[in-house]
Each structure stands twice: as structure tokens, then as C-alpha cells.
Amino acid sequence: MKKQVLVLATRNQGKVKELQEMLAGFPVEIRSLADFGPLPEVVEDGATFDDNAYKKAIFTAKALGLPAMADDSGLVVEALDGAPGVYSARYAGADADDAANIVKLLKELEGVSDRRAAFVCVLSLAVPTGPALTYEGRCEGEIIHEPRGSGGFGYDPVMLYPPLNKTFAEMTPEEKNRVSHRGQAMAQVREEFAKILKWLDQRLVEGKEAKPDHREFEHNDWSREVMVK
Question: One of 71, 72, 98, 156 is an active-site residue; which one?
Fold first, then answer.
């Protein structure tokens, strides 16, 4: 059986590694943007994680003529009205690194007792003709007062997951994949993967225009399927 090529539309090597691990064993050939020539950066100017994930996925799918999966994820903090949200990667400025973003976050939360937060991830799987599947995961936790752990990336060192009493930077890869926001979204993908492959085959090989019955997919409302003109 020929494997379906699936492009991970990201240059973030941390995300690439996590997604490759989560998709290991599936009948797909995983590639990332590093396997292709240079592509323009997609401006992540969407108002939601869903907007940005779809924008990256459809741009990559159209540019390469292959199905593409993109994610947009970030940290939402209750006391900050959902910030940093879609600005998580550039919270301290366009050129800020993870350490700078963490410093700003902790500064914003000085003296704040409500440390509740959540990691949110939206995965979008698009084909070159426009339609896409969307999966969302969310992991609740709390922001601690100083970084702990050396693993992970982003806000992992300051995001405590109470059931394990560990930050995401202290978790093993197996623990993180099991409980993380991205892990939850990918669990939905794994659950429906046979249907996803069938859908890809219909879209890529047969070129059908009709929408599939949304009842076949627990996590997607096909009545809201987006078509790009």
C-alpha cells in the first residue's frame, strides 16, 4: 500500500518532532517544510487559533500540491483575559525568544493569585482544493512563579500540570504526548484516521465536490466546511 504524503506545515522543530512521534506507525509519509525549497512565511494574523491553523495549512497545501497539516497553539491565561493567546509566540515582541516571553508573562502575573491557564491547540488538515478538517485540544493547568524543567519549548517550564505535579518541561515525551493540548488533538486524528485517509483519497484522487456525511466524523461539523475560492 502506497503511503500518503502529509506535509507538516511548520518550521518549528519542536512541533515537528512531537507530531512525527504522534503519527508514527500510520500509513503516511511525514514531511516538513524543511524537505522542500523555501516558501514564503505565512502571516499569522488570524483572530483565533483556528484561523491561523487553517491559513497555514491551506497555503502549504496549495503551494506544494499535497495535503498539509498545520497547528496553531498557545497559552491562554484567565487573569489576563485569555492573553497571550494567538500572540503566544511573539508575546514579548516579534523577535522574542521563549525565555523573553516567559519573563514577560511572569511580570504580568506578579501579585496575581489566580494562576489558572490552558494550553490550546487547533490542528487543521487541508487539501489543495480548499476543504479542511479541524481538531482541537485543550489542557488545563496553572502558571508557577519560576521556570522548572529543561525539556519542551515555549511556555512549558512555567505551565504546571497538577495531576502529575510537573511542568510540561519536566514531563517525559510519553507523558507530554498523552496529556498535552497537541496530544489531545492528535488523539482525535488517530481515532478517525481511517476515515481521514478515505476523505483524502476522495479529495485528491477522485476530485469529488460533494461533502461527506458529517455524522461520520465525531469531531467535525461538515456543514461548516470551508471552501477557498
Answer: 72
